[in-house]
Task: inverse folding
């Protein structure tokens, strides 16, 4: 026994776990990682004696070392000195063989099982312990096993054969003739099978082993001492990639924080004779060429290297196929190891192109092509596009803002093919190929900027590989292709660039150029001895393996169609679920690979990872196992089927409200999985694409590869913008209706059903407010049945997984979201928390982010930077290792945005929330402290796509306000609310000020600070300063409105203070009027910007922290002006000479505001205070006297807005109430008269007439019947009210001058129409003919270009033709109403639909007009008003018999997409109210429809084709 063995206790039963580990490393001499496994599994001596080979294999140890351990264990049990089996009969030199040398010896003996033994890590010392049964256990039958053992025994009488391991190279003198070189290489290879007695395996005499190790260690330490601290760390991160002779790496944990002495000791102990070589190789990899050269000279002196002649040597590498795999997969077996591939190719031939199909397998590909003929037939680009989608670009298109370039070129979703030197499929001088000198002048700069963009933006946040595809020789450095290599070297490490070349001579020249110019040896990163056919076959055989070979989609008649890769490339907004998803991926689903994969996926899911389609596949595969479904599963499934079957809409939106983290996304995806045979299912990605393009992609999916469309089921998971969602639904509906050639109301196939998961803090309440047939909800509370299912699942997991109690997300749900369980978990996780450490800081950041920003995380690449381990080759393991004390509640997720990257997050938001509470309560680390720390790190705010995503998350955390009921929001974000409650305004301001410096180009932060200051702190000057700062960054209606809100709040605050003060200062009046002037200007400016154009709606606002969500500003400026004006009226009404409690003083105020008397004529007490008040009012008199007419103008405009158009959001409801409340104040102030004036009217007959006219006008004004839109609102009021209004207009008709009479006459006619519809028998209604005559007089007076569409609206009502009576003038009136409404009401109608208040009925005269309120009365007893509105909106109302019996269907045609009503030879243009049923293709057809009258012309409802 060895010395180390003697130190062990004599009785094995008394060995500790450390003794067992020492025995394994010193006696058995296996890799230390295997000993660590035994120690980790608590294997002591007593337990060791019970082990057999089976138990060793179950610990994850491969077959080769497992057999060796088992043999030594048998010897230990029997107290024997040698291994049993064949060991005693074998030659001793075999024991020194590496697994590669065993592999070569087996290949030489034509053994077909060489690869199998290589995979099982069978080295020479392991092979000596093999018996026939051991071979049989790995699938090698008795015959081959006996043959191998026989050949081994024959070596006993032979000399040791020469072996060339994978890591060695045979050095051969280069001759002048290539043929001679090949012979020499072949001769060298032949030496393996032709050993010579005098051959030496070493180049120099071996010293004493101990002295040699010490000497090498000293050399290595001296070299490392010359490295800077950062370079030493870099060296340590590359070192674990190097394996020793036993194929074992140095664990990263052993190198962490080690100095040069410890590093040199570890390196020399682990790598032995190869330590110097490994040191040199790593120095080259980290670009320390001088040190590498010095070390190489030392090695030559020691005899470890042979000196080569100055002529270049030819190196022959074996297994270049394996090398290619390792380079492309980062040492794995799947192309998924890299996030993105960049291929740089020069001119190719037809023969080469046929072997370059492997490019189609590279995901997220960018190609820099120097072949101008590439897009011509048989060219590389042209061939690629036959099966994949590629967008063809030029280098100059990569210039501009990052986000603009990425989105416009679609870089994250489709291949970008960049032509870097001409493009001959376009015949123009600009696309000609350039010689080197011209290219250098004209194109080189663009290509350099392209390369910089690729390296700094596309490759910076993930693992990327650059492949130089040398398809034709490059003989000089004066070549654009070579210049591009130079550009890449400026922006990335040479290890990130590999070269593929099938021509040895072309490669030799390429290598020579690079060595000459850059002093870089590219051999380790090049493959040059494989043909392109071999390269192609090797790459095509690589993973990813988790995709079904042929993807299928459901089609009509229970058939299926193939989803082609090119079609999938086009559908960039959709993650498509196929019929055969996950099928035929693994050859053997009972084999160990599949079972291991399943265990990993299930563990990740139950820990808290995002659900994948694989999870449902496993569920279907083993139906006996439980997959817990929430109780609402069947309800939602039934709702989807019902809406698909019965809804008449082409697109149906179903809302699914849920608490965060309660399993809603999993449930929704499970429903898609189970319905994938009935629908074409897809998940909508978070995409910047326009809604119209997304809609087109959905229609493309619906019609893909089939003559008959198929219904689509679309999942939207917590879409951020409600308004955008409704816009998208409308776009989808229109796209479906426009693109299908069948009547959508009768087709089940042309349907898109959207299941929209909506995260909510009160899902049940939201559900109650919605249409219950089109929504469902679940909460973070389990039913008894769900609890039972979770208990059963836990029992099942305990049988199949180790420690399922550590699957914390599963356990949280199983505990019914028990707060005590979650708090205990947080407390245990943080028991060793130390805020001064980097891992603690990062965990605190994650806790804050994951609490306040759903689905947030920090990119792994950022975590690497944070820990200073950017060069680590295995970032996921490295980051988790750095976070090891918190890793139990952390998980790495893949995010598909921005081209795909990995992020680190906490398993469940409740854990993050509990950890944040524990940090505050147990460690006094407040949310504000963590926020300020995050804002402190420059790393998080530097440029880069992934860093931008983190910046967006931090910004959302600061400004994103939670919704209340409807569209209204809380004043501030939850985080700011919390900090305000805990620490007050000073801390909040400190955070916002710091954030403002970080987000210097974003208006959202200063705007949010301004809101905080004026709402919570009442610091109006400071609030105004920050609001103005936001305006200088981005002036839009939302920002300018905030300025108006500051002035309004300041004014209200001043008024509140003055109410509490006994004495009044006249100067306060001046201050308040100035505030009002500035506030009104701000609101007017905001409204002007909103009205002028929709640019601010096309570009996303900087935030949603303002008072309005996107695309809903509409009329807030008008409302703001009203509010400010009435504050001024209130201030004036409190002045001593305008006091509203005194009727005469109130009359003075009315007269002054009506500009009837100047302030100087107002009676007031003669004192200094009143005189100063009068002076101030005089200074602002122009502003004050214009307020009343401005207010009246706003009321009239807003009355039109609410009358003529459909409401867009609940903001319209809130605004309508605000306007109504202010109108009541208006009536009280301007539409009442004191009793004294009534007495004056009775005593003075001449004055009486004027007062009567004024009285009638005021009555109409206060009842809002003085406008056309106001009268229309009386369609659902009482006839008695309408009779009073008609009488007022009768009186005015007789008294008002002719010039003023037109508006009165038009309103009088409409009032009669409305009164007739309310009470046809009323004595106050004029006859139909009399009204027609009056209308003709009015039309004669106004002509066809009146400023308002009102007279033409009446013309449509009164003169609409009948089947027996045509009226050719009607077309003229329609042109007039369209022109007038377009010119004078376009601001009202922007992106809003008009309302038809009246419809065409079956009678004649005024009886043929049917009001909408009269139709509504038939249904309000059956359904709530919200449901009735939905029926009108989607057109289902026109299928009801109450509608059919009262309205008449009008015959017409549709020609060139235009709708016409036809009466004999008369064709009248009509707008379709909805696009439903209007077919694409511009087919001329006969149709019929119901006719409604809107203020912008007649509308066609429920269009039906005659066929």
Result:
């Amino acid at each position: 026994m060895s010395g180390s063995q003697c130190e062990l206790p004599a009785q094995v039963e008394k060995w500790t776990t450390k003794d067992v580990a020492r025995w394994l490393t010193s006696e058995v001499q296996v890799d230390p990682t295997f000993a660590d496994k035994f120690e980790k599994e608590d294997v002591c001596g007593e337990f060791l004696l019970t082990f057999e080979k089976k138990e060793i294999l179950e610990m994850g140890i491969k077959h080769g070392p497992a057999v060796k351990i088992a043999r030594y264990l048998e010897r230990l049990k029997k107290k024997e000195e040698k291994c049993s089996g064949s060991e005693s009969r074998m030659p001793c030199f075999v024991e020194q063989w590496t697994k590669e040398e065993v592999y070569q010896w087996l290949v030489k003996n034509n053994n077909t099982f060489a690869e199998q033994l290589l995979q099982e890590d069978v080295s020479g010392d392991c092979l000596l312990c093999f018996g026939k049964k051991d071979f049989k256990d790995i699938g090698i039958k008795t015959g081959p096993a006996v043959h191998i053992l026989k050949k081994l025994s024959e070596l006993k009488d032979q000399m040791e054969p020469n072996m060339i391991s994978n890591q060695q190279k045979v050095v051969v003198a280069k001759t002048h003739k290539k043929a001679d070189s090949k012979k020499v290489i072949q001769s060298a290879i032949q030496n393996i099978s032709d050993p010579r007695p005098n051959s030496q395996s070493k180049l120099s005499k071996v010293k004493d082993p101990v002295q040699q190790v010490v000497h090498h260690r000293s050399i290595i330490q001296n070299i490392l001492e010359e490295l800077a601290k950062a370079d030493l760390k870099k060296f340590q991160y590359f070192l674990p990639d190097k394996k020793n002779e036993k194929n074992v790496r140095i664990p990263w944990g052993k190198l962490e924080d080690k100095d040069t002495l410890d590093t040199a000791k570890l390196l020399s102990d682990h790598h032995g004779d190869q330590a110097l070589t490994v040191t040199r190789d790593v120095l080259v990899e980290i670009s320390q060429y001088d040190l590498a050269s010095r070390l190489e000279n030392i090695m030559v002196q020691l005899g470890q290297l042979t000196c080569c002649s100055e002529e270049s040597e030819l190196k022959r590498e074996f297994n270049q196929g394996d090398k290619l795999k390792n380079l492309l997969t980062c040492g794995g077996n799947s192309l998924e190891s890299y996030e993105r591939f960049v291929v740089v190719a020069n001119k190719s031939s037809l023969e080469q192109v046929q072997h370059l199909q492997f490019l189609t397998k590279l995901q997220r590909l960018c190609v820099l092509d120097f072949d101008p003929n590439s897009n011509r037939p048989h060219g590389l680009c042209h061939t690629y596009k036959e099966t994949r989608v590629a967008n063809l670009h030029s280098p100059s298109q990569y210039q501009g803002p990052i986000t603009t370039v990425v989105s416009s070129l679609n870089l994250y979703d489709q291949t970008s093919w960049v032509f870097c030197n001409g493009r001959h499929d376009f015949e123009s001088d600009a696309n000609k190929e350039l010689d080197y000198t011209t290219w250098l002048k004209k194109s080189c700069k663009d290509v350099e900027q392209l390369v910089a963009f690729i390296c700094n933006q596309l490759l910076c946040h993930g693992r990327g590989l650059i492949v130089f595809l040398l398809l034709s020789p490059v003989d000089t450095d004066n070549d654009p292709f070579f210049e591009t290599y130079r550009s890449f070297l400026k922006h990335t490490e040479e290890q990130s660039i590999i070269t593929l070349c099938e021509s040895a001579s072309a490669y030799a020249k390429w290598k020579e150029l690079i060595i000459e110019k850059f002093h870089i040896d590219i051999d380790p990163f090049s493959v040059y001895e494989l043909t392109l056919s071999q390269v192609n076959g090797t790459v095509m055989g690589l993973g990813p393996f988790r995709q079904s070979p042929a993807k299928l989609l459901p089609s009509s008649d229970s058939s299926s169609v193939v989803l082609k890769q090119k079609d999938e490339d086009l559908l960039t907004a959709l993650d498509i679920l196929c019929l055969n998803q996950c099928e035929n991926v693994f050859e053997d689903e009972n084999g160990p690979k599949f079972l291991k994969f399943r265990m990993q996926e299930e563990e990740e899911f139950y820990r808290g990872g995002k659900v994948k389609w694989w999870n449902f596949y496993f569920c279907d595969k083993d139906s006996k196992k439980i997959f817990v479904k929430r109780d609402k599963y069947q309800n939602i499934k039934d709702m989807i089927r019902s809406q698909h079957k019965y809804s008449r809409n082409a697109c149906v939106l179903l809302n699914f409200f849920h608490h965060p983290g309660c399993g809603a996304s999993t449930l929704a995806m499970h429903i898609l999985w189970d319905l994938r045979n009935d629908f074409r299912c897809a998940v909508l990605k978070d995409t910047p694409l326009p809604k119209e393009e997304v809609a087109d992609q959905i229609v493309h999916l619906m019609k893909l590869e089939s003559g008959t469309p198929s219904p689509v089921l679309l999942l939207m998971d917590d879409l951020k913008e409600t308004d955008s969602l409704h816009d998208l639904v409308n776009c989808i509906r229109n796209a479906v209706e426009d693109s299908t050639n069948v009547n959508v109301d009768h087709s089940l196939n042309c349907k898109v059903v959207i299941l929209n998961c909506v995260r909510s803090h009160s899902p049940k309440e939201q559900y109650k407010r919605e249409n219950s047939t089109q929504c469902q909800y679940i909460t973070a509370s389990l039913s008894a049945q769900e609890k039972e299912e979770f208990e059963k699942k836990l029992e099942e997991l305990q049988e199949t997984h180790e420690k399922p109690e550590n699957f914390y997300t599963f356990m949280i749900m199983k505990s019914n979201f028990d707060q005590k369980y979650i708090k205990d978990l947080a407390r245990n996780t943080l028991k060793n928390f130390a805020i001064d450490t980097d891992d603690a800081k990062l965990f605190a950041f994650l806790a804050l982010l994951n609490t306040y920003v759903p689905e947030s995380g920090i990119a792994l690449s950022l975590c690497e930077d944070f820990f200073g381990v950017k060069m680590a080759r295995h970032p996921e393991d490295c980051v988790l290792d750095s976070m090891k004390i918190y890793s139990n509640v952390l998980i790495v997720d893949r995010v598909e945005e921005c081209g795909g990257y990995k992020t680190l997050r906490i398993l469940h938001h409740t854990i993050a929330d509990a950890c944040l509470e524990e940090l505050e309560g147990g460690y006094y680390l407040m949310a504000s402290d963590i926020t300020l720390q995050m804002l402190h790190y420059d790393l998080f705010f530097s440029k880069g796509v992934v860093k931008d995503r983190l910046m967006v998350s931090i910004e959302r955390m600061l400004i994103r306000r939670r919704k209340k009921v409807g569209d209204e929001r809380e004043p501030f974000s939850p985080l700011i609310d919390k900090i305000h409650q805990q620490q007050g305004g000073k801390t909040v301001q400190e955070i916002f000020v710091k954030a403002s410096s970080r987000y210097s180009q974003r208006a959202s932060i200063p705007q949010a600070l301004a809101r905080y200051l004026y709402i919570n702190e009442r610091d109006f000057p400071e609030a105004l300063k920050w609001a103005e700062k936001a305006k200088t960054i981005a002036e839009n209606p939302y920002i300018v409105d905030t300025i108006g809100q500051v002035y309004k709040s300041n004014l209200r605050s001043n008024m509140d203070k003055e109410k509490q003060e006994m004495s009044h200062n006249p100067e306060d009046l001046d201050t308040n009027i100035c505030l009002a002037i500035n506030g009104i200007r701000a609101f007017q400016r905001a409204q002007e910007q909103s009205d002028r154009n929709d640019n601010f709606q096309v570009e996303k606002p900087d935030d949603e922290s303002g008072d309005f969500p996107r695309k809903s500003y509409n009329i807030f400026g008008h409302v703001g002006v009203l509010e400010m004006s009435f504050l001024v009226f209130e201030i004036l009404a409190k002045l001593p000479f305008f006091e509203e409690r005194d009727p005469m003083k109130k009359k003075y105020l009315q007269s002054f505001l009506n500009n009837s008397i100047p302030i100087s004529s107002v009676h007031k007490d003669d004192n200094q205070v009143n005189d100063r008040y009068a002076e101030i009012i005089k200074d602002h008199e122009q502003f004050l006297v214009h307020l009343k007419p401005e207010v009246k103008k706003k009321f009239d405009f807003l009355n039109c807005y609410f009358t003529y158009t459909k409401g867009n959001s609940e903001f319209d409801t809130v605004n309508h109430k605000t306007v109504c409340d202010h109108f009541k104040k208006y009536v009280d102030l301007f539409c009442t008269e004191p009793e004294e004036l009534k007495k004056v009217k009775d005593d003075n007959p001449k004055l009486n007439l004027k007062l009567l006219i004024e009285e009638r006008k005021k009555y109409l004004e206060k009842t809002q019947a003085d406008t056309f839109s106001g009268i229309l609102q009386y369609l659902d009021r009482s006839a008695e009210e309408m009779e009073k209004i008609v009488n007022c207009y009768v009186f005015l008709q007789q008294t008002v001058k002719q010039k003023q009479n037109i508006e009165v006459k038009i309103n009088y006619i409409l009032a009669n129409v409305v009164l007739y519809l309310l009470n046809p028998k009323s004595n106050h209604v004029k006859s139909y003919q009399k009204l027609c005559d009056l209308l003709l007089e009015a039309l004669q007076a106004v002509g066809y270009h009146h400023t308002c569409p009102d007279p033409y609206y009446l013309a449509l009502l009164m003169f609409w033709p009948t089947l027996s009576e045509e009226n050719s003038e009607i077309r003229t009136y329609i042109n007039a109403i369209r022109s007038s409404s377009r010119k004078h009401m376009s601001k009202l109608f922007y992106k809003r639909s008009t309302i038809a208040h009246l419809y065409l009925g079956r009678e004649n005269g005024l009886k043929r007009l049917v009001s909408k309120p009269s139709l509504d009365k038939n249904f309000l007893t059956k359904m709530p008003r919200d449901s009735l509105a939905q029926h009108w909106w989607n057109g289902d109302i026109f299928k009801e018999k109450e509608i059919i019996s009262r309205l008449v269907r009008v015959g017409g045609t549709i020609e060139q997409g235009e709708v016409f009503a036809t009466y004999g030879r008369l064709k009248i243009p009509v707008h379709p109210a909805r696009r439903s049923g209007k077919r694409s293709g511009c087919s001329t057809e006969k149709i019929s429809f119901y006719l409604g009258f809107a203020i912008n012309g007649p509308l066609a409802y429920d269009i039906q084709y005659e066929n």
